[in-house]
Each structure stands twice: as structure tokens, then as C-alpha cells.
Amino acid sequence: MKLRFTKMQGAGNDFVVIDATQAPVHLSHTQIQQVANRYFGVGCDQLLMVENTDTPGVDFRYRIFNADGSEVEQCGNGARCFVRFVVDKGLTDKREIRVETASGIITLTLQEDGQVTVNMGAPRFVPAQIPFDVGTQATVYELPLHGETVTISAVSMGNPHAVMLVENVHTAEVATLGPQIESHPRFPQRVNAGFMQVLNVHEINLRVYERGSGETLACGTGACAAAVSGIQLGSLQSPVKVHTRGGILTIQWQGGDHPVMMTGPAEIVFEGEIEI
Ligand SMILES: N[C@H](CCC[C@H](N)C(=O)O)C(=O)O
Fold it and tell me: For a tag on the chain, would you pick the N or C end, based on fewer CB atoms within 10 A?
């Protein structure tokens, strides 16, 4: 089948976006892996499927698939690219959009300067919502890996995150520890592994080894989870500027059940068609 797509990126986290609002598009696990493949396909960290919804008060639905084909609950950088997509494609004349995702309804706003602010909802810590095989809720947890034990925070932004403090992101063992944390048996649905270096109370460096995609240049929900865990630990104060390898995201959170607000860029890179 011929599949038309729009290639997009938000802080270097890249996406293939499919418009399924005119007609449904069904892709198999294997087809998604093929599209995401950087040598035999288009190449992307995630594939986003934009659909209509008949849920009252909601404008669209969008589904998120990792490069390994797994469908997931939430994607922060993808949410911003979704807004840029539906506005630039003329699918809406709104600038504040409510969209249904697998983890619930979120509200997004396209700013005058082209940046997008996303209300990501409140973070969740209860292990069962991450899900994380641990007895009681805590601020940090010891995670035994091959040959060493690391200390992580466990935060859900709709999708699960394990955040580890490091001295320097540039020397952090992301390539070795990332896969071990991602597939640790205590995370039955796997987990996104964040490596956070605190620069000052309002700034961090962050690298994320993403569940189902490997290390990406930026992870929006990972930036939210890292900022939230730093605020919980008393190392950070809102707003938090998150320096990722692909760009800067700004995270605001007033604590407790307040929503996490994320602001960052979203760009269209090119249009194309692939035979799959
Ligand atoms: N790999 C994530 C989904 C994409 C999240 C990321 N690209 C973002 O911007 O939040 C997961 O399996 O939960």
C-alpha cells in the first residue's frame, strides 16, 4: 500500500505523522517497524496516527507507536507535533486543542511564537500506575542491575519513567544502563530511562533511553518526569529548563495534583509517500 506521511520533529525527537482523519489507516506491527526503520524505511522514533473522535468536547484522537511497533499511552514531543500538524494541514482553525490519547484527554495550545504548550496532566507516583513492582510508594527506589545497584525515581506521565541522577550526562552510561533499566523485570510493561544532571535549581541536562525506541535526542514526557522527580527531591524549582541533545523544553509544575505544563518547539521537516 502507498502511505502518505509528514515527517516532523520536536527538539530532535522525530516522528512520521499519518493523517487518518479522512479514512481509517490500519498498520501492522511489522509495517510500523518498517516505516520507522532508518535504513529500509522513512526513519522515526515514533509514528503518530491522527484520527477523528466523536467524544464530546474533544477535537481529535491521536495514537502513538514506538519504533518497535509497541503502542503507548503518551508522547510529549509528539503532542506538540500533532498540534502543528492539524493546524498547518487546516484540519482545525482552533489554537487550543483537546486531544484524546490512550492515557486520557490533554489540552494543547499553539503559541503566537510557534512554540506549543501542553497540559500533560498531573504526574502519578503510585507504583501500580507506573506499573512498577515495588511494595510501597517512595521518592526513590534501589534498582539492582547487572553488577551494580542504581537509585531511581519512578514517575508516570501516562507512560512510565525511571529517572536517575548522574554527575554528567555526557559521560553517563546511557548505552549500557539504559537497556537494562528499560527491560528491568520490576517494570512489567518496561520503562523509559532518564539520566538527569542538575545544573542549578532551574536547569538540568537530560538524556533519555526511551522504551521501544532507544536513546532519542529528546523525550517530552521524560523531561516532565525528570523535572517532577527533581522538584520532589528538593533539587529543582519550577520552572525547569531542560537541555536535551536536540533542543530546550520548559517544564512548569506547582506540585501535588497540579498539571505538568510543557512548552517546546514542533516543526514539519518534509512530506512523502512510502510503499509498504
Ligand atoms: N517511548 C515512550 C513514548 C514516546 C515518548 C517520547 N517520545 C515523548 O516525547 O514523550 C514510551 O514508550 O512510553
Answer: N
